[in-house]
Amino acid sequence: MIHAEKATHSICRMVDLLQVSRSGYYAWEQRQSSQPGPREARRADLTVKIKVAHDASDGVNGAPRITADLREAGEVVTRKTVAKLMRENEVRGISPRPWRPVTTIVDPNPHAIPDLVRRDFDRGELNVVWTSDITYLATNEGWLYLCGVRDGCSRRVLGYAFADNLHTDLVETALRRAVTFRDPATGPTAKVIFHADRGCQYTSSQLADVAEEVDVRLSVGRTGVCWDNAQQESFWSTLKTEYYGRRTFATRAEAIAAVSSWIENVYNRRRRHSALGQISPVAFEHRLTTVAAEAA
């Protein structure tokens, strides 16, 4: 009461009327000012939850994905608030760094393969455009090469293969796995566009024969123009920035097991993708197939 009325009445007069000590009132006021109010308590609670979400992402996620995590857990919070609390508490996500691939070896006698994509990777449907590329991974045993195949719409990694060389067998294995293990619920894979750069593995007679056998259409971008396969190169940047570049691997076998687990369990199933509305590729595909099934 004294605190509520002190703007209009003298504290000395009120303590006398209420027969309380002035020192007692000031002690109470000091205790109140030392305790956090509702706003401060809310900020403290959010900060704890932000740190938990950041730790759960292996220290990778920034404000957009952490905001999505909090909202999924029932919190009503804006991205700006999350970003501000992260800055104040020195909680930082990891930002991909630009890089240039060095695994493209141009075939001097390539087949006449057109560019059927022209940078339009996402056609709004599954199994319309698949992108592929090869990257290198360092281990203490030497280089390890990884070929991946992704759906341009869902960004899901469908097939991948590892080798200690850059033979076309690497690409063939990844493509065959993508076709073989693609979920039938996502629709047929016949006539899907299989897009890559002009590396000799993708313009070889061997891959042309495989493409005809599994019924996919080959497509390649221009020589030396990384933007023509930007979606796949973005995936390599994510893999190396958020996972591989933060670790060391003694053997190729160790790297294969670790990267395979990250692709299947983290990237495909857990990592939120901004282009998919901050959900994972698997969740996005499930949403599309569910809507299609209900509409049928």
Oligomeric grouping of the chains: single chain
Identify the overall geometry.
elongated
pLDDT averaged residue by residue: 85
> What is the spatial order of strands in the main beta sheet?
3-2-1-4-5
Alpha-carbon distance between the two ends: 67 Å
Briefly note the structural class of the backbone. alpha/beta
Strand content: 5-15%
What's the gyration radius in Å? 28 Å
Structural notes for this entry:
The protein is an alpha/beta fold and about 300 residues long. A hairpin with a 5-residue loop joins β2 and β3 (about 155-165). The chain has helices spanning about 1-5, 10-20, 20-35, 40-55, 65-70, 80-90, 170-180, 205-215, 230-240, 250-265, 280-295, and strands at about 130-140, 140-150, 155-165, 190-195, 215-220. The protein contains eleven helices and five strands; from the N terminus they run ααααααβββαβαβααα. α4 packs across α5 (about 65-70), α5 crosses α6 and α7 packs parallel to α8.
Question: Which helices and strands, and how do they pair?
Answer:
Blueprint: H1 2-5, H2 11-18, H3 22-34, H4 38-56, H5 63-72, H6 79-88, E1 129-139, E2 142-151, E3 157-163, H7 168-181, E4 192-196, H8 205-214, E5 216-220, H9 230-242, H10 252-267, H11 281-295
Parallel strand pairs: 1-4, 4-5
Antiparallel strand pairs: 1-2, 2-3
Helix pairs in contact: 4-5, 5-6, 7-8
Protein traits:
single chain; 296 residues; alpha/beta; five-stranded mixed sheet; 11 helices; 45% helix
